[in-house]
Amino acid sequence: MSATPFPETQPASLVLGRPNGLGQRFGLREGDRLISVNGGAVAPDPAALTARLNRPGLPAALCFERAGHRWFILSDTAALGAWRRDGTPVDLGEGGGAPIDPATLRNWEVLRAPDGRYDIQPVTAPVMALLVPPLWLAQMHLWGPLAIWAALVLVGWPVGWPAMLALHAILSLYFWKAGAALWRADRLARGLAPDGVIATRTERELHRRIRSLHPEARYLHVPPRLAAAAVVDGG
After folding, report:
1. Is residue 4 domain-resident?
2. Which of 1, 92, 101, 216 is the most exposed place for a label (fewest CB within 10 A)?
3. Domain assignment present for 61
4. pLDDT, averaged across the chain
């Protein structure tokens, strides 16, 4: 028996079964619906999705829906778990399937605590950690590593400029490579846990998206007394 074509006026979607390791790192759950790819309708065929996303290094913007809330991730693979077709009609929103350029989005890692506190960092390697480690450490509120950096600089100061430059290069490379892990370890120690990945155009938009998914969410660096009235500015 041949499959009945799905009406173009009612785009189909794919539902994720149990996510694999990569899907879990993205924060995906069983039952999450993939409703668009780069803003366009999803072909109701897991094999077609795999072929469409099989472009290493060229991620696509995948829009998921859970409990009426939608968010994007950037992924260059469909291998996030087992997919199945869902026949529920999909409303692509006001844009009506308008194209989305994945290059305008950025993946952010989100960690969240049961009491609503959350923090974020870009998934990509922190370039600022390579160029100006102390500024990046201060921006990320990593006071322990910043103190270690300052202590090493003070110890190396009497040795002379060549040694200082070499030490700075070594520390810059270290923080560039290990910066994300240092940030994650610090937040885990504060009681936060991995919550997933969200792709947005700006940091301000990311904060809005997180509060949409989790109304009780409170940015870690906003004092509790100001959280309700704070305007979170991604700068």
Report:
1. no
2. 1
3. yes
4. 84
